[in-house]
Write a structure and sequence with these properties.
HIT family, subunit A, alpha+beta, 34% helix, 5-stranded antiparallel sheet
Length: 147
């Protein structure tokens, strides 16, 4: 079954804490237990797949994903950044941009896999304490790059 814009949750709402919104896309911070630096770059117009976009729009989308990744790396110094565009649950084009740390409960497995170890509340809180600064830096970078 194809989801239409009228049925789409990402057409109806931001999809998380709105960090920045531009004409074509937006950045939100998601609430994902155990992963405080979990963001989504969401295409504003309803599109299910990256190939639904024009070449220029695809390039814009990927430049935004790369900009978010770069700011997260510079600010948090994670072990790795995970990028994913699954869309199985919400068939609206969005990219997950997730800061991963070698101490996180699931590392090196996917955030959607089984936990590898117990969560580290102190280290999660230390990352969470940096999110206000990170959000501001992300909004500044996206505004400067995409207007």
């Amino acid at each position: 079954m194809t989801t239409t814009a009228a049925q789409c949750v990402l057409c109806a709402q931001d999809g998380g804490a709105l960090i920045w919104r531009g004409e074509k896309l937006r950045l939100i911070r998601a609430v994902e237990e155990g992963f405080p630096a979990f963001y989504r770059v969401i295409w504003n117009a309803h599109a299910a797949e990256l190939s639904d976009l024009s070449d220029d729009d695809r390039n814009l989308c990927m430049k935004a994903v790369a900009a978010v990744e770069r700011v997260m790396r510079d600010t948090l110094a994670p072990t790795k950044i995970n990028l994913a565009a699954l869309g199985n649950m919400v068939p609206h084009l969005h990219w997950h941009v997730i800061a991963r740390f070698d101490w996180d409960s699931h590392f090196p497995a996917s955030v959607w896999a089984n936990a590898q170890r117990p969560r580290n509340a102190d280290k999660e809180a230390a990352v969470a304490a940096q999110l206000s600064l990170l959000d501001a830096q992300l909004a500044e970078r996206l505004s400067a790059q995409f207007g």
